[in-house]
């Protein structure tokens, strides 16, 4: 097994890794760090949660230290472009953590915040700047910043930047950065436009592919409910209230809807059932997003309803379940969504709700991502609850048996070691995510233990 110390990183960076508690490099780190240290351009095909931030940040910190150039006036030495504010914030934090011993200055600039503050902040330049493309070009247009000092350029989640309409911004930026620089280009998927961009930005890049483009994360168990669109909310509530034997223990549940209004609607209806949840989407202000994320991270409100754009790049360890309340119409988006769980080696559960009119999306997802779903039956009394004739008063609590993901060799052993509760969980016990909800018996007493084969994606 490769160790961080085998990769040629400097002592200050190794020390910072020690402080973070990382002992072994992830595959992308092991493969990317040596060529980046040599100054090579890199094309990283990697989905979220693979540890790609450290894969580009650690060697770059060393390269910056070694070159020891002066911080340029109104410019930066390393520029990292990221699609969303959240991701930019996380990358900047990682740069500060990993560079803690290296004495490098780090700033981030994102849309939705005061442009004047950014202008002042960047006046003296900095070593590392993390930016969303729109805000960066704003400042360049105002002559408050220039890219002449850039030694290292990183494009993170390039496919998402394209999805968000940053193609023109990226083309423009490619004209403004110095020719003599190193480029590290990351994308989870490789559509044609991305290949063209790689050609524009990179010079003879080393390609590191952690999982083939558009395959679903390996350690995620994927389940499917076929359910009518207008019955999805009821199903969601029954799952969160543990009236249905869903696999795994809820720690933090991330729910995806296609639209902002859809996200708000889900949150409102959950609130009516005393299930606290927050929404995160483009109509929320920056402080609202930050608060929602913070409450989710601290598991104060461990249910977050998100749209794709807002959720992109969110790094929260311990997302136990991703629920696709609506299926995305772009298969790659499915990969990104479920990549929120099972980050950096943890196991995760993804549950898809598919309505009749989403069957074609499901077909595309299956075809293009190799995802294999295990279909789950609707709760036993689902029809009665939907029709309003199901039990409304809590019945005496009955022992319940939760479906557990089927053991799968080594990873099951790891799961047991990590979640000893899974071995002998108290019957009827409830876990964090649904704790705010009212326990309703809903006829969900002795649940059938799910049998049959468990399917999962194989990358
Ligand atoms: P990323 O794919 O860069 O967003 O990283 C996903 C998560 O993995 C983040 O929470 C990182 O802090 C964490 N991580 C990155 N590298 C390692 C490592 N070598 N060991 C353990 N966790 C890591």
From TrEMBL:
Identify the PROSITE patterns for this entry: HELICASE_ATP_BIND_1, HELICASE_CTER, Q_MOTIF
Which residue windows does the record flag with biased composition (Gly residues)? 426-445
Q: Which domain of life is it from?
A: Bacteria
Recorded hits in InterPro entries, A to Z, give:
DEAD/DEAH_box_helicase_dom, DEAD/DEAH_RhlB, DEAD_box_RNA_helicase, Helicase_ATP-bd, Helicase_C-like, P-loop_NTPase, RNA_helicase_DEAD_Q_motif
Sorted alphabetically, which CDD domains does this protein's record hold? DEADc, SF2_C_DEAD
GO molecular function, one example? RNA helicase activity
Q: Where is this region: Disordered?
A: 387-459
Q: What species does this protein belong to? A: Aurantiacibacter luteus
Full protein name: DEAD/DEAH box helicase
């Amino acid at each position: 097994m490769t160790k961080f110390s085998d990769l040629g990183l400097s002592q200050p960076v190794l020390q910072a890794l020690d402080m973070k508690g990382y002992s072994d490099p992830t595959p992308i780190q092991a493969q990317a760090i040596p060529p980046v240290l040599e100054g090579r351009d890199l094309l990283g095909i990697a989905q979220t949660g693979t540890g790609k931030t450290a894969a580009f940040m650690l060697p770059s910190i060393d390269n910056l230290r070694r070159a020891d150039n002066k911080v340029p006036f109104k410019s930066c030495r390393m520029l990292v472009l990221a699609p969303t504010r959240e991701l930019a914030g996380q990358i900047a934090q990682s740069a500060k953590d990993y560079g803690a011993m290296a004495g490098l200055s780090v700033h981030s600039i994102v849309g939705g915040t005061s442009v004047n503050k950014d202008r002042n902040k960047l006046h003296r330049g900095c070593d590392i700047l993390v930016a969303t493309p729109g805000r960066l070009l704003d400042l360049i247009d105002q002559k408050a910043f220039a890219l002449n000092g850039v030694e290292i350029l990183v494009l993170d989640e390039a496919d998402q930047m394209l999805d968000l309409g940053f193609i023109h911004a990226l083309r423009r930026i490619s004209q403004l950065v110095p020719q003599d620089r190193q480029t590290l280009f990351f994308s989870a998927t490789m559509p044609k436009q991305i290949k063209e961009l790689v050609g524009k930005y990179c010079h003879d890049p080393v390609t590191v592919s952690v999982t083939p483009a558009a395959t679903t994360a390996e350690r995620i168990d994927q389940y499917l409910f076929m359910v009518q669109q207008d019955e999805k909310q009821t199903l969601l509530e029954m799952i969160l209230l543990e009236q249905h034997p869903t696999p795994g223990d809820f720690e933090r549940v991330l729910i995806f809807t296609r639209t902002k209004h859809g996200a708000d609607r889900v949150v409102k209806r959950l609130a009516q059932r005393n299930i606290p949840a927050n929404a995160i989407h483009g109509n929320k202000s920056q402080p609202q997003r930050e608060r929602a994320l913070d409450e989710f991270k601290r598991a104060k409100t461990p249910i977050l309803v998100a749209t794709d754009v807002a959720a992109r790049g969110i790094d929260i360890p311990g997302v136990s379940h991703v629920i696709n309340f609506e299926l995305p119409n772009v298969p790659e988006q499915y990969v990104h969504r479920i990549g929120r769980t099972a980050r950096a080696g943890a196991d995760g559960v993804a549950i898809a709700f598919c309505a009749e009119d989403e069957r074609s999306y499901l077909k595309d997802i299956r075809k293009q991502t190799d995802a294999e779903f295990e279909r789950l039956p609707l709760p036993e009394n689902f029809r009665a609850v939907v029709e309003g004739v199901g039990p409304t008063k809590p019945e005496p609590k009955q022992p319940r048996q939760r479906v557990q993901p089927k053991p799968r060799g080594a990873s099951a052993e790891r799961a047991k070691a990590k979640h000893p509760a899974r071995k002998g969980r108290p019957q009827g016990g409830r876990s964090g995510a649904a704790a705010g909800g009212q326990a309703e018996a809903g006829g969900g007493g002795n649940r059938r233990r799910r049998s049959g084969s468990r399917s999962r994606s194989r990358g």
